[in-house]
From TrEMBL:
InterPro entries with a match to the protein in the record: Archaemetzincin (IPR052009), MetalloPept_cat_dom_sf (IPR024079), Pept_M54_archaemetzincn (IPR012962)
Family: Belongs to the peptidase M54 family.
One Gene Ontology term of the molecular function aspect: metal ion binding
Keyword Glycoprotein appears in the UniProt entry: no
Protein name: Archaemetzincin-2
Function: Probable zinc metalloprotease.
UniProt entry keywords in alphabetical sequence: Hydrolase, Metal-binding, Metalloprotease, Protease, Zinc
Single Gene Ontology BP annotation: proteolysis
Any coiled-coil regions, as ranges: none
Protein species of origin: Betta splendens (Siamese fighting fish)
Length: 353
């Protein structure tokens, strides 16, 4: 195990920069905002922000050496996308069945939309009507190892590009069906075109039972479906909506040599934020599910915020209105993040007091 411990001076430079124009920009934050961000200059077990822990050589940082992106290099990147008055909406496009058909499916997608709205506070997040696999016209196959159905990411990206509304900052396709990027690959969690603001991600492998021989999505008979025979997806298994599945869907996951994450991580990339190597952060890369589960839900100070809207989203399931719902929001797995947000708010309130 290795703890990547950055010095306070190094973190200060990454957060503020030494360029006078960026120092001046930072000085416009309120004292409370600056005090909160500067909590990250001294990470530790008893502090709000934590240093990065690498457990093995298979973790992202040792496996994929990358140059650290500080605030200055982010700010000066000419290729990063920036929302504006004409492109200020994040669209979520469900593809195929997600969860149990009916109300629970709609509720799950709405939870994802609400979380994304809270995370990217200030932007509008809208759901597009669910489309079937047949609607996308994508190629598909049966995976020879897992014996489950998979759909081709490149075809889905082409479909999403045509569906992208004019006011979109980005459009993200979500599906419970496994994906593959080309015939030679076993699978991929997702794929994206960041400069076009288009991505597609599968949550199929977030099911705890996916890698089990008893996984319900394994086809019991050897199928050789012909191109265009989309009837094989009728009634195809999708994993149940659990707290862990919702947590992983809100976070992110990456696999080797491809750009794919779930919502907040990948949309963060679309803003121009690269993989974080400063502190424990949702923008860190992950090579495997166990590594992804170690990552927090939130940005570190250098990658940026948002507290109160997320806490409100997590607590909505305890409100009187939510109590009337037949499907309570499964937020048990969010308890660690919720406690972290309470600690953050305590810091801000103490500074105000």
């Amino acid at each position: 195990m290795e703890v990547i411990q950055r010095s306070a001076d190094e973190l200060q430079t990454a957060l503020v920069s030494k360029r006078q124009d960026l120092v001046k920009l930072y000085s416009k934050y309120t004292n409370e905002e600056k005090r909160f961000l500067e909590e990250g200059l001294h990470p530790g077990p008893s502090h709000i922000f934590q240093a990065i822990t690498v457990l093995s050589d298979s973790d992202w940082i040792p496996a994929h050496p990358e140059k650290s992106q500080d605030f200055e290099s982010f700010y000066r990147d000419p290729n990063r996308m920036t929302p504006n008055a004409n492109h200020n909406t994040i669209y979520i496009q469900p593809i195929g069945s997600i969860g149990v058909a009916g109300f629970q499916t709609d509720q799950y997608v709405e939870w994802l939309r609400g979380y994304c709205q809270a995370f990217f506070y200030g932007l509008s997040v809208k759901l597009l009507p669910t489309v079937s696999v047949a609607d996308t016209g994508c190629a598909f196959r049966v995976n020879s190892n897992s014996h489950n159905l998979q759909i081709l990411t490149g075809d889905l990206l082409q479909f999403l590009g045509k569906q992208k509304p004019e006011d979109a900052f980005c459009i993200v396709g979500i599906t419970m069906i496994d994906l593959y990027p080309k015939d030679s690959w076993n699978f991929v969690f997702g794929q994206a075109s960041l400069n076009r603001g288009i991505g597609v991600f599968s949550f199929a492998r977030y099911d705890d039972n996916f890698y089990s021989r008893n996984y319900a999505g394994r086809l019991q008979t050897q199928l050789q479906p012909k191109p265009g025979h989309y009837s094989v997806f009728d009634g195809y298994y999708t994993p149940p909506i659990t707290s862990t599945l919702l947590l992983r869907s809100c976070k992110k996951l990456e696999t080797y040599n491809c750009c794919l994450q779930t919502m907040t991580h990948e949309i963060g990339h679309m803003f121009g934020i690269k993989h974080c190597q400063w502190l424990s952060c949702v923008m860190q890369g992950s090579n495997h599910l166990e590594e992804s589960d170690r990552r927090p839900l939130d940005f570190c100070p250098i990658c940026l915020r948002k507290l109160q809207a997320l806490l409100h989203w997590m607590e909505e399931d305890q409100s009187p209105a939510a109590a009337c719902s037949s499907v309570p929001k499964p937020t048990e797995a969010f308890q660690t993040s919720k406690l972290w947000l309470y600690r953050c708010l305590d810091v801000l309130l103490k500074q105000n007091g």
